[in-house]
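Translate structure to sequence.
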């Protein structure tokens, strides 16, 4: 039987450096994804809050001025004409 060649029990320094570099990069990317998800969640929560404020403000304005369109550039209001069936 032929003798088996002895396999190294350690990877080369260059291979280890490459693996370490890639693992750090993966960890960094995952951290950035996590941070992005936190920011996304915060933005979605803020969006809901702003939508609720918008709706409450629209209701207040409707009580005061009736059903109107507001020109956001000038503040001018125009009554909404209801379609007759």
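Result:
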């Amino acid at each position: 039987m032929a003798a088996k060649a002895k396999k190294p029990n350690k990877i080369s320094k260059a291979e280890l450096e490459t693996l370490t570099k890639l693992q750090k990069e993966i960890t960094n990317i995952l951290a950035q994804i996590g941070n992005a998800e936190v920011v996304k969640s915060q933005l979605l929560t803020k969006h809901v809050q702003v939508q609720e404020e918008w709706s409450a403000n629209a209701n207040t304005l409707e009580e005061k001025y009736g059903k109107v369109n507001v020109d956001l550039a000038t503040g001018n209001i125009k009554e909404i004409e209801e379609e007759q069936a």
